[in-house]
Amino acid sequence: QVQWVESGGGLVQAGGSLRLSCAASGGTFSTYRIGWFRQARGKEREFVAVIDDSGRLTLYADSVKGRFTISRDNDKNTAFLQTNSLKPEDTAVYFCAVFWSGVFTRDYARAEKYNYWGQGTQVTVSS
Length: 127
Prior knowledge:
By secondary structure, the protein is mainly beta. The protein has one helix and eleven strands. Strands 2, 4, 5, 6, 9, 10 and 11 form a seven-stranded mixed beta sheet that branches.
């Protein structure tokens, strides 16, 4: 079983940056495909980015492409989401999770295919 400690969220002005971290304990981190999702108040959870076990394949939602970068450090059992050029519409609770079922290249953006969700970290972007 995987447990996560998420950190790095906060309040930032539009145009600013934050680096989110998700540190894992338990499980075999280096074999997991790790996804980041976000959920704004009153909205459904939405896909942000995912990285495969090797770190060579990364996929992004169109809304964050070119501004966010997902990465991982398998030696430290940690996944990262670098968020740049933040906009007020990026305000949400950000979660990490493990891709758990389905066909990765087809299902990577579907929250129901993930397991072992982190507790979330709040990102608030002011205008």
